[in-house]
Amino acid sequence: MDIRxxxxxxxxxxxxxxxxxxxxVREAGHSVRTAAVFDLEPDEVGRIVVSEGDQRAELLRLxxxxxxAGHETEQLRSWRLDAFFNSVLSVERxxxxxxxxxxxxxxxxDSTGRQLQVYNRKGELQxxxxxxxxxxxWQSSYLRAIGEDQVYQTRQGxxxxxxxxxxxxxxxPPPEPDTTGTxxx
Length: 185
Prior knowledge:
Blueprint: H1 2-28, E1 35-36, E2 45-52, E3 55-62, E4 65-68, H2 78-88, E5 92-98, H3 104-107, E6 114-120, E7 125-133, E8 141-145, E9 151-154, H4 166-169
Antiparallel strand pairs: 1-5, 2-3, 2-6, 3-4, 5-9, 6-7, 7-8, 8-9
């Protein structure tokens, strides 16, 4: 009687183990494969260029200091630069969305999209991408490398971390001093 109970328990455990393994194998086929977009560390980046329409922002590394070209005397928002390095440089592409150039405008990765160029410290272009905003999922973006037809969805949304306007990157100017001589109460 005791042997039969152990045998039944062994059969149940073996069946559960087989079910577990089958589930693991089946789920592995449904996992999303990701790939890094950038092969650079933040300290290897020497220049960043963001352009959209007629606007262009060029961020330059001068030793350890970052400046916006044409606005060298103004201070950059350090948190914007940190957000760029933490979010954009670590972004991963997920799903291939399209290989059809006729659909580029649907994903915002045509010639009117936000272009991002990242150069290393030697001045060599490492990535030239067009970034589009996802209208379906704000937590992701679309990417297309210049010269390629493939449009990928990203794992994280990076569209909001890049902009071509100087106001996006620069600290606002300090308020003008009150010269009227009145005291506020």
